[in-house]
Every structure is written in C-alpha cells, then in structure tokens.
From TrEMBL:
<dbReference type="GO" id="GO:0006281">
    <property type="term" value="P:DNA repair"/>
</dbReference>
<dbReference type="InterPro" id="IPR029119">
    <property type="entry name" value="MutY_C"/>
</dbReference>
<comment type="similarity">
    <text>Belongs to the Nudix hydrolase family.</text>
</comment>
<keyword id="KW-0235">DNA replication</keyword>
<keyword id="KW-0227">DNA damage</keyword>
<keyword id="KW-0808">Transferase</keyword>
<keyword id="KW-0234">DNA repair</keyword>
<keyword id="KW-0378">Hydrolase</keyword>
<keyword id="KW-0479">Metal-binding</keyword>
<dbReference type="GO" id="GO:0006260">
    <property type="term" value="P:DNA replication"/>
</dbReference>
<feature type="compositionally biased region" description="Polar residues">
    <location>
        <begin position="8"/>
        <end position="17"/>
    </location>
</feature>
<dbReference type="GO" id="GO:0035539">
    <property type="term" value="F:8-oxo-7,8-dihydrodeoxyguanosine triphosphate pyrophosphatase activity"/>
</dbReference>
<dbReference type="GO" id="GO:0046872">
    <property type="term" value="F:metal ion binding"/>
</dbReference>
<protein>
    <recommendedName>
        <fullName>8-oxo-dGTP diphosphatase</fullName>
        <ecNumber>3.6.1.55</ecNumber>
    </recommendedName>
</protein>
<dbReference type="GO" id="GO:0016747">
    <property type="term" value="F:acyltransferase activity, transferring groups other than amino-acyl groups"/>
</dbReference>
<dbReference type="Pfam" id="PF14815">
    <property type="entry name" value="NUDIX_4"/>
</dbReference>
<dbReference type="InterPro" id="IPR020476">
    <property type="entry name" value="Nudix_hydrolase"/>
</dbReference>
Length: 390
C-alpha cells in the first residue's frame, strides 16, 4: 500500500489506538516534573491588569511525569526512533490516522506539526519516554486534539511493540487525560477504539472512560472503514464528584437517611478593577479543573470568618481582617454525599499578593465573564448575584 502524505497522516494518537495488553512491569523510570497550569489562567495580581482572557497557547510545555514515564513534547532528533517504532504493521493497523508503510519524512513533518499545534493549544501530542540504563528512550506516544468550540478533546495513544504488556498506555493516557481535564477549558474527553481492539478498550475502561456508542471510522493503514466503539470521560468520571471526608465536627447532626451538613466558608476577593478571584481545583482533588471561590471547611469550633482568615492565608498567603469580610450570600446545595452550606463573603482589602500556594491556578475574572468558568454546581446561583452586585 503506497504511503500517503497529508498533515493528518501522523503517528498521531487521534483515535482508535493501540492494541496493548496491559500487565507486567516495564524497566523505565520517571524524572520529577509538574504540569503547568493552563488556560484560562490569569495574573494573580490584585492590582489592575489585563482583563480575563482565555490563554491556551504555550511555547513552553512542562513535561508530565508518571511513576515510570515522562510525557514530553517531541524533539526533531526523535524522528528516527519514532519512525522505527511506528513503521510497524502491528502498531499502525490499530491507528486510524497513520499510514503503513510510514515514510521517514513523515516523522519529521509530524514532529514539526505537533510542535506548532502545541504552541497554539490546538493539540497536545507528546512522546512517552522511559529510561533504559541511563538513556532516555521513546516507548510510544499519547495525544489530545482539542475541539475548542465543543470544549472537548479526543484522546489517543500508541506504544512500540517492544514495550507492550507493561501498562504503558494506561499510565500515559491516564496522566494526560487527568492533566487535560484539570488544566484545560474542557467539559469532557472522547476516544474511540476499533471494536476488536480489546487492549485499547481495556485501557480506556481502566482509566475511567465510559462507552457511549459505536460508529465507523476510516483507518488509513487498512485503507478501509472499521467499526469503532466510542468512549467519553468527564471530570466526574476521572476525579469523582464532590465527596469530601465529612467530619462530624464540621457538620450538624444527620438524622437517619439524610445527608450530613458540611459547612464551608468562601470568599470573593475583589480587586481595584472589580475583578473577582477564582481558584481552580488542582489535579488530584475531586472536581479538579472546576473554578471556585477560595475558602474551605470550618474546623471544629471555628467561626466562618476565622476559617476564611485561616484558609486565605494557607491557600493564597494573604492576611485578611475579620472586619474586611462582608457577608454577601450563601449557597445551600445537596451533593450526593453531603449537603453543602456555604456562606460567601466579599472582601476588597487584604495584605499581601494572592499566590497559588496549593498548586491551584488563579484567575482574576471580570463579573460578566464569571459564567465562562466551569464551577461546582453549588456556586452556580451565586454567579448572577455577584455579577448584578458588582
Ligand atoms: N472553597 C470552596 N469550596 C467549594 C465551593 N463550591 C463548592 O461546592 N465547594 C465544595 O466545598 C468543599 C470545600 O472543602 P475544602 O475546600 O475544605 O476541601 P477540599 O475538597 O478542597 O479538600 P481538602 O479537604 O483536601 O482541602 C469541597 O467539597 C468543595 O468542592 C467554592 O466556591 N469554594
């Protein structure tokens, strides 16, 4: 079959990906790296600054680490190794967007286009690397194509045949999927797998995707359509809903059959420009990726004001006086495992400059833009109140 040359014909994990049974262990090691906050992320300065704008383009993607792997942007010098791994019928036959045979020049072209789309924030195609002895080796690839209009992204992955049966695809795909929902402006992830690709289906299920339907897709390597299974994952699928450990001390008594009451104090910090500070729940927490008002649970015996003063110092490194906290509204919302009662205070004066002390991204948001930021359900009624007031 002659290779075809189109920018979309890539070793790209665009969909319907690797047939990778996932057991055992791989002799690869991880270096330490942390994900950068991504859009919509703004200045954390309380001084007047640029208005809130979604900003997703990045020239500088910080690699993502897993226990054994590093997910990093491709480099031009990866082309030969990439070509050697991907120009393999056993790998390409499961990849919808990769032709076979795969010509060497396509690897160069792919690396160039992956760098450009990463810079623009339209796709995140990353090399999955491990180490063999002291040497870094490429073991596969993982990627996301972003559909900004639909706030979705499609996940794909492939693994070089030599590295099958070591759990590489699950480890890499889970990391990128969780990073994406925690850091990008997305409501869900999508993925497809060829109906007979049991390995890839198992990967998607293992990392938290749900099957939502079936369809057909053209596979370049087969030069034919294939039946595919369609999968999706939302934040709730990957991180769980709002179900914190509810300590009896912070709750009122819960009669049999009812949910415990959780008291949380929250604060809308307002800067001199009338912008409100939102904090994004970081990867690793339930509801990661949602934006909320800084604050937190009340400790036993604490007043809401005292809890807020403590939380604002811990989370943002600022000092607030109780006299500067003005009661504004409250949220009363039933989550599955508890009922949230959350007084919301307004504060226009504080000491220090809010800094993200707990890995959260911060955004100073104009009131009319608040509704563009995905927030926990309990906060939704507060948004119009705040917008009208400010
Ligand atoms: N701070 C804050 N919490 C909110 C908001 N809306 C909302 O539903 N919550 C929920 O209220 C609870 C706040 O608890 P928290 O901040 O002390 O705890 P957490 O889940 O972040 O975990 P942690 O115990 O590790 O700090 C969480 O379940 C959180 O999802 C909000 O606007 N601000």
């Amino acid at each position: 079959m002659p290779p075809r040359r189109r920018p979309t014909q890539q070793p790209a994990p665009s969909s319907a990906e690797a047939n990778v049974p996932e057991e055992g262990d791989l002799d690869v090691a991880a270096a330490s790296a942390v994900p950068p906050p991504q859009a919509p992320v703004e200045s954390s300065s309380p001084e007047p600054g640029p208005p809130a704008e979604a900003e997703e383009a990045s020239d500088d993607f910080t690699p993502l680490a897993t226990e054994r792997l590093i997910l990093r942007p491709y480099k031009p010098e990866d082309a030969a190794e990439l070509h050697r791994l991907i120009n393999d019928w056993m790998v390409t036959r499961n990849l919808a967007a990769v032709p076979f045979p795969y010509r060497r020049e396509l690897a160069d072209e792919w690396i160039r286009s992956a760098a450009e789309s990463l810079r623009q924030g339209t796709a995140y195609h990353l090399a999955v690397t491990g180490t063999e002895g002291e040497r870094e080796i490429i073991v596969g690839g993982v990627g996301l194509r972003v559909d900004k209009a639909r706030k979705t992204a499609s996940l794909g992955y492939w693994v070089g045949q030599r590295f099958w049966r070591h759990g590489v695809a699950s480890e890499a795909a889970a990391r990128l999927a969780r990073w994406a929902l925690a850091n990008l402006d997305l409501v869900r992830l999508e993925a497809t797998a060829a109906h007979d690709n049991a390995g890839s289906v198992a990967v998607l299920r293992r990392i938290g995707f749900r099957q939502v339907g079936e369809g057909r897709e053209k596979f370049l390597s087969l030069n034919a359509e294939q039946r595919v299974l369609r999968f999706q994952a939302t934040r709730e699928d990957l991180f769980g809903g709002p179900e914190p450990e509810v300590e009896p001390e912070s709750c009122g008594p819960a009669p049999a059959g009812s949910s415990p009451l959780l008291l949380v104090a929250a604060c809308a910090l307002i800067d001199a420009d009338g912008r409100v500070l939102l904090a994004r729940r970081p990867e690793g927490k339930r509801m990661a990726g949602l934006w909320e008002f800084p604050g937190g649970k009340l400790n036993p015996g604490e007043t809401p004001e005292a809890a807020l003063i403590r939380e604002l110092r811990e989370e943002l490194g600022i000092d607030v006086a109780a006299a500067c906290l003005a009661p504004f509204a409250f949220a009363s919302h039933r989550y599955e495992r508890f009922h949230l009662l959350m007084p919301l205070f307004l504060c226009r004066r504080w000491k220090g400059r809010p800094q993200p002390r707990e890995g959260q991204a911060l955004a100073w948001v104009r009131p009319e833009k608040l509704s563009e930021y995905p927030m926990p359900e309990a906060d939704l009624p507060l948004v119009p109140l705040l917008r009208d007031f400010l």
